[in-house]
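The records we work with from here on pair a chain with its fold. The integers have meaning only within a learned vocabulary of local backbone shapes. A complete example follows; check for yourself that the lines match position by position.

:::
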Amino acid sequence: MNRQEQGTTLFSALLALVGVGVVVQLWLLSASVDAVFRGDATTPLHAAIGSAVLFVINAGLLLYVFAFDKRLRGL
């Protein structure tokens, strides 16, 4: 497998992971809104922490893609 095919496969896999992360963040948002309407104050805090962790993971994946692309181009 050449490097361009590896890059395409890597990008597709990371795109799927980011998509799953976004869906989980949307689920956390809806659970938080529901908890606020029920008067629960701890669930939104935990959901915000989980969403922040997912954001950091997605940012790390994006930085990895940029680094791989830089290596692929030989810069």
